[in-house]
TrEMBL record:
InterPro entries: Ccp1-like, Haem_peroxidase_sf, Peroxidase_I. Residues 1-12 have a biased composition (Polar residues). Keywords: Oxidoreductase. It comes from the Eukaryota. Residues 1-30 are annotated as: Disordered. GO terms for biological process: cellular response to oxidative stress; hydrogen peroxide catabolic process; response to reactive oxygen species. The lineage of its organism: Eukaryota, Sar, Stramenopiles, Ochrophyta, Chrysophyceae. It comes from Spumella elongata. Transmembrane segments: none annotated. One of its GO terms (molecular function) is heme binding. Gene3D superfamilies: Peroxidase, domain 2. This is Uncharacterized protein.
Amino acid sequence: VAEGSATGQGTAYTKRGAAEGQKSLSSGGRSWTKNWIVFDNSYFTDMGKNDPEVIYFPTDTVLQTDAGFKVHCERFAKDQAAFFASYAAAHKKLSELGC
């Protein structure tokens, strides 16, 4: 779940960045979170707001609807330190696997 929050660091927000044919400050799309340059838990705090300007991918939706994932999303929204700890552990494991 922690690594799944990469959407917040990636591009998918319709009001920031660029959609096809639009100018952008950065190439490749739009950020899901408003302050995309800051690493924090805003992906999780923003997730439940159902902002109509946000593009929700199936991977985002399942994090909110699947009982096994939802508990982590709710915890990460309330506790940024828990998100940081989980993200660091997941990132370390993926790095050790060469991912």
